[in-house]
Amino acid sequence: MTLPFPLVAIADRDFLGEHLVAAVCRVLEAGLPWICLRARGSRTGERTRWARAILERCPGAFLTVHGDPEACRASDAPGLHLPGLPESEIARVRRRLPGVLLGVSCHTRAELVAAARAGADYAFLSPVFPPASKRAVRVLGPEGFRREAEGVKLAVYALGGVTPERFQDVVAAGARGAAVLGALFGAQDLEARARAYLEAVERAFRTGPWGGG
Hints:
This protein is α/β, with parallel strands linked by helices and 213 residues long. Helices cover 43% and strands 18% of the residues. Strands 1-2-3-4-5-6-7-8 form an eight-stranded parallel barrel, surrounded by six helices.
């Protein structure tokens, strides 16, 4: 399945609060089309309402719903992202929702391999750098990312502290792209930050297509 873009903007309900939908529209207008709606601890009905609001108010957004297959289906979102789950559970969701773009959060090579076997289209591998939205954690770094992801039959996105300045480093390490949260949505000038990421994507893939298929 074709991937929407080399950068995924994770719109986290806890991080953005009541400004979630407005922030999504702002980054979309700045040129970043792929949004992952994450609302941990929320009910399916709440996630469905936010997903529908994004799809209605932000035309052109490619929306992935995090962690809730029912909200994904109810809102007609084109993408679903799962937290780390057993391979059998990922495969079960794949069978239930064959037409959605399916992603999985991973931390190890074994998890990446399992996600690929279960039919996922892509994975987030983290943390690559210290995340802006969390306390200091042990990180992979670009070389660690390369070791874990190399040869895996899956599109792997780098997650955790990927700033515009670091984007090219993770692509050089084999990432298909990156997923960002605090490093994007925590910026004072959200539009300027989104444009900086867009420019980083253009620089990283200047010599050829980024390979979204």
